[in-house]
Design a protein that fits this description.
There is one protein chain. The chain is mainly alpha-helical. The protein has one domain: Helix Hairpins. The protein is built from 3 helices and 4 strands; from the N terminus they run ααββββα. Strands 1-2 form a two-stranded antiparallel ribbon. α1 packs antiparallel against α2. It is rod-shaped. The two termini are 15 Å apart.
């Protein structure tokens, strides 16, 4: 009986370590994706700045050559403005995706919290009835004596 309780205890520890590791990997993936999106946003903004500079340069050149020229009908200007609109659309999509991931990150951070009182990691997700196992508690009361610590489950304590 005691051997089964110890086995259950260590099975629970292994399961918790695997769960924590899986969550750490997921969190790392999320943070990597968020970092990539931030780099993409900066890159798009830089490209937009270059495009605005090109528009200004083209307007200046057109006006310098022919001050009365209808600049808004110039194909170069039309193409640069169209490119600016496309860049802006890409920027909005990247920002939306970043906002969505940031919201997901907040949610997953709440999934695993630490019980301040005893320093144990607690999973705030409700366990499914199929996988719910009794909690194993190691008694430290006998730690001051020569007897080994006893591992018991909640169901043993209720008997």
């Amino acid at each position: 009986m005691e051997r089964e309780s110890i086995d259950k205890f260590f099975d629970g520890v292994v399961k918790n370590v695997k769960t924590a590791f899986g969550k750490a990997v997921k969190k790392t993936d999320q943070l990597t994706h968020i970092g990539k999106l931030k780099i993409d946003i900066v890159s798009i903004k830089r490209e937009m700045e270059k495009n605005f500079t090109s528009i200004g340069k083209s307007l200046y050149e057109i006006h310098s050559d022919t001050p009365s020229a209808p600049v808004w009908e110039n194909e170069t200007i039309k193409n640069l403005i169209k490119k600016g609109e496309e860049l802006n659309e890409r920027l909005v999509l990247k920002k939306d995706e970043l906002e969505h991931l940031a919201h997901e990150e907040e949610t997953t951070a709440e999934d695993l919290s630490v019980d301040e009182e005893n320093g144990k990691a607690t999973n705030t997700e409700a366990p499914s009835p199929d996988t719910a196992e009794p909690e194993v508690v190691v008694s430290t009361e006998s730690a001051t004596t020569d007897e080994p610590a006893q591992a018991t489950s909640e169901t043993d304590n209720k008997k």
